[in-house]
Amino acid sequence: MGTELANVVDVASLQKYDDKTFDGMSSSTFLPRLQLMSASSDMCKQGKFPINHYAQITGQTYTDVGAEVDVLVIAWRPKAMKIGEDIIVSHNPDCELFKQIERESEGKDSGCMYGPEFLVYIASTKKFATLFLGSKSARREGNNVRARLGKAATMKSQFIEWKSYKWQAPTCIACNTPFDLPSTEEIVAEAEKFNNPTEGVEQEKAPSSSERAR
Fold first, then answer.
1. Confidence (pTM)
2. I need a labelling partner for 127 at 20 to 30 A (CA). Which of 25, 60, 73, 159 fits?
3. Residue 69: C-alpha distances to residues 22, 57, 176, 197, 212 (Å)
4. What is the widest separation between alpha-carbon atoms in the chain?
5. pLDDT per position in the chain (214 positions), as tens?
6. CB of 171 within 8 A of CB of 156?
């Protein structure tokens, strides 16, 4: 066994600051992403993440939040994303960049996606996150997520089969399990940042291939 301070003292009793303060000092300027990890995702192919579970993704850290995840749906915005050497993002559907990405998304392996992006609060991890419905099948569920604005929702998945293709897509239903909410001040602050994004190049890791497909 290695040397451990816990053998002689309660380490928690030595800490002046709490976990929330630590998260504020070490977190990225980007919110975590909530993403359905299907069988086509690299992490699932490598056996590093359960298939058809949702992941809370922060940088390179994938946290399994289950096959079903309860969230509070807070706000939404348009989003178009092009993945290449850089990650180019637009939230303005009236600008030419957004329209170009939307057009290019129809091409195979274009690296382009567009759709609604939601600000959510994940009940199990007590974290704010974004949920981007950027594929064709995910966009179809956008109205159901939007219908839960200001309410709790449960994100699940459904099996879809079309011609020779088979895949899982996100679904959204009403959540009947009560959970604790963050303070009004926290919700308003996160919504304010979410509603005023920057345009252009993002440095955060791109969504995996599972989110780009179908």
1. 0.80
2. 159
3. 25, 14, 12, 26, 21
4. 63
5. 556 766 677 888 888 888 777 766 644 467 999 999 876 777 777 777 888 899 999 988 999 999 999 999 999 999 999 988 888 999 999 999 999 999 999 888 788 999 999 999 999 999 999 999 998 889 999 999 999 999 999 999 988 776 666 778 899 999 999 999 999 999 999 999 999 987 766 655 555 544 444 5
6. yes
CA gap 61, 138 in Å, rounded? 23
Burial 156-192 (b: 16+ CB within 10 A, else e): bbeeeeeeeeebbbbbbeebeeeeeeeeeeebeebee
Burial of 3 (0-12, 13-18, 19+ CB in 10 A): exposed
